[in-house]
Amino acid sequence: MEGGYNLRMVKITPTSLRRLMPAVLLGLVPILSFGCSGGKSSSGHILELRAGSTTEVEGWRRTDVVIGGSRVWMSPDVAVDDDMIESVEKTLDHTGQPSLYIRLDPEGAEKLERLSTEQLSRPIVVVVDGRPTSAPIVQSPLRSFIITASGLNDEELDGLGRRLEHDED
After folding, report:
1. DSSP-derived secondary structure letter, 46
2. Is residue 8 part of a domain?
3. Is 169 contained in some domain?
4. Full domain range(s) for residue 8
């Protein structure tokens, strides 16, 4: 897919991070494609994580993301955003695919852990540049995650990493 890339969230623990570089344990693995606009959403964020549901929830927005034949509904509330990113590190995922390991600040880690605990066995919607891109099903509480950006060359992946670290406007 020209001009696009895939994201997936992967569970990282301190133990697995030390032991599995460059590989990563899978916690959340759905992969869905999206285009990279290179800008921020109307909320001003490049990356947002929100609660999701495979059934309609009043006040939530229906997305184009599909899980098991059902559309995913997205909470209007942003639980975690790119302002909570402490660091972004280029790494490799479990398949050797170039990836970005995203470490959140204490507030972000706490919010991600709360969101992922509340969403156990349900989706978390990943929003990039204002567009819902994927909705991995939460399998266990998370405090950090990996974005695997397949289809990006090194320069594009580095650019996304810089954008997430707020090195670029």
Report:
1. S
2. yes
3. no
4. 4-164
